[in-house]
Amino acid sequence: MSSLAQQPEHSPEPAFPIPAGVFAETVTKVTHYTDSLFAFRITRPQSFRFRSGEFVMIGLPGEDGGKPVLRAYSIASPCWAEELEF
Predict the structure, then answer these.
(1) pLDDT at res. 57
(2) In angstroms, what is the C-alpha Rg of the chain?
(3) I need a labelling partner for 60 at 20 to 30 A (CA). Which of 15, 51, 70, 74 fits?
(4) How many CB atoms lie within 10 A of CB 81?
(5) Torsion from C-alpha of 47, 21, 19, 84, nearest 10 degrees
(6) CA distance linking residue 65 with residue 67, whole number of Å
(7) Which residues contact 33 (CB under 8 A, 6 or more apart)?
(8) Over the stretch 2-58, which tens digit does the pLDDT of each residue have?
């Protein structure tokens, strides 16, 4: 498992606090195939490296700044891609 750690310089300042050791990235594309199946792309941190078959934990902030809601997503993009696709 790879972890996304550190906030990149290109991301705008988020409206909520970002924990230490976490990247804040931007969603660049969402494709809906059905009501419950979709793919999405995010910006890629320059320092983020991974190997085929690895996954990352992606989360959104919890209600009222509480614990974030995290889910595991497999990386579908090749390791040399400029963006990450899930």
Answers:
(1) 92
(2) 13
(3) 51
(4) 12
(5) 40
(6) 7
(7) 39
(8) 445 444 455 556 566 677 778 889 999 999 999 999 999 999 988 899 988 899 999
